[in-house]
DNA sequence: CGCCGAGTTGAACTGAATCAAGAAACGTGG
DNA sequence: CCACGTTTCTTGATTCAGTTCAACTCGGCG
């Protein structure tokens, strides 16, 4: 796969946000991009370190979580065609509070902090782009933090089945449980309750 | 108070973010700003409506909350010198999921969505500014969503006392409870427990 | 074959919710 | 300035969803 191919998805993404991007600007922008592969179970960022990258996911699957009382609490998952970063740490230059770990082998296109600052100066359009990335990350985070708006765990699990069924295929159940904010045991019982309910509605005689 | 005085705080804020802002750019920017006063108990934004403004708080106090099963869940409070908006709704032009309500009489400087888009075109620096606002709002939201990192309710309440003691003076206790994610009854008991503990440590004989 | 991690199931426990009732604080009008 | 009603806060009794701990199953893999 050539370098150009690796940036293909990102370029499509940029063109969508910024239809007027000039080939020159794109070339300069591209010169600041790096492809990196994160193997399953490895980390994009660890709690306590300063986050130096904003990463666009070409392929793969990552999870964001923090440790609370030695237990993992998962805030969300990210997959193809979206930006991911411990953005607060990236912006403030202070240690990250989150871990971001690959659940599957993952390929990202990274932009380094210093490079991005340079890019903002060199390419005026980059400020627009920076705003877009910022807004994108904001929306992702809002979705995560509002997800608990659903009343019961059962409703939230059902919503997950509807909206992100692929997560159930690709993520072990104990991580889904953590994402929903309960223990694996509790999720097991919730699933059990749901399936018993649907059997009642459609009895197989 | 003259119009210029009303924009004073915001100008200081802009100058800090963007020391190079030209007087001309500031004049254009200013022409797109509106001052609005929201009386106590009135709303900056209601769930279900599209949010058309990003607002800078000159003075006052607001809370952001959503309804879950007819009960209010408070996500956070905002006061002087920070930006507030139902930003996801503002960006996506879809109905807001949150309410933003004044707890005290509040004065804000608003920027309208359409005006801001125009401003981005007219004043190149505005893209930089838009990025700054976006980043600012992102950081505020991260702080809110990570706040549950503290283990017990007691620890979170104690942290609140340390870090935002003014909240306890200005916000009724049932709102603090909602912010901490518990019922007013539960918070009352937590406070009770804490004060009994400190009495044990420093017995008054 | 036996080990290991993931998932399930059961029993006991627990922190917080709920419901209810009373006390304290607040503000509004006379 | 007091009296009243409303709102907020406290306290108690009961209930419940989810945790914890432990035992057991299942499927993959060295």
Using brief descriptors, characterize the structure shown.
homodimer; 205 residues; alpha+beta; 51% helix; elongated; DNA-binding
Helices and strands in order:
The structure is a homodimer of 205-residue chains.
Chain A: H1 3-6, H2 8-17, H3 23-31, E1 33-38, E2 43-45, E3 53-68, E4 71-79, E5 83-84, H4 87-92, E6 99-112, H5 113-122, H6 125-146, H7 153-163, H8 165-170, H9 173-180, H10 184-201
Antiparallel strand pairs in A: 1-6, 2-6, 3-4, 3-5, 3-6
Helix pairs in contact in A: 5-6
The structure holds a DNA duplex (30 and 30 nucleotides).
Concise synopsis of the structure shown:
The first copy, chain A, is built from 10 helices and 6 strands. Chain A has 205 residues and is α+β, with helices and mostly antiparallel strands.
Task: Write structural notes for this entry.
2 copies of one chain form a homodimer. Chain A is α+β, with helices and mostly antiparallel strands and 205 residues long. The first copy, chain A, has 2 domains: 3-148, Jelly Rolls (Sandwich); 151-205. Chain A has helices at 3-6, 8-17, 23-31, 87-92, 113-122, 125-146, 153-163, 165-170, 173-180, 184-201; strands spanning 33-38, 43-45, 53-68, 71-79, 83-84, 99-112. In chain A, strands 1, 2, 3, 4, 5 and 6 form a 6-stranded antiparallel β-sheet that branches. In chain A, helix 5 (113-122) crosses helix 6. The longest helix of chain A has 22 residues, at 125-146. The N and C termini of chain A lie far apart (55 Å). In chain A, 31% of the residues are buried. The model of chain A has no long low-confidence stretch (mean pLDDT 88). Chain A binds a DNA duplex (30 and 30 nucleotides) through residues 152-153, 172-174, 182-189, 191-192.
């Amino acid at each position: 796969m050539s370098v150009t191919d690796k940036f293909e998805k990102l370029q499509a993404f940029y063109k969508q946000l910024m239809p007027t991007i000039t080939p020159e600007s794109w070339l300069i922008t591209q010169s600041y991009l790096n492809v990196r592969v994160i193997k399953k179970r490895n980390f994009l960022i660890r709690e306590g370190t300063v986050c130096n990258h904003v990463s666009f996911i070409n392929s793969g699957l990552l999870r964001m979580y923090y440790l609370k009382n030695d237990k993992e609490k998962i805030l969300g998952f990210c997959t193809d065609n979206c930006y991911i970063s411990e953005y607060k740490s990236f912006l403030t230059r202070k240690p990250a509070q989150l871990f971001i770990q690959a659940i599957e082998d993952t390929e990202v296109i990274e932009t380094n902090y210093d490079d991005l600052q340079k890019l903002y100066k060199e390419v005026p359009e980059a400020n627009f782009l920076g705003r877009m990335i910022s807004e994108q990350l904001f929306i992702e985070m809002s979705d995560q933090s509002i997800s608990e708006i659903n009343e019961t765990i059962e409703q939230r699990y059902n919503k997950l089945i509807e909206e992100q069924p692929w997560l159930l295929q690709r993520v072990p159940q104990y991580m889904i449980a953590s994402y929903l904010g309960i223990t694996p045991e509790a999720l097991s019982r919730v699933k059990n309750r749901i399936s018993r309910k649907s059997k009642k509605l459609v009895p197989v005689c």
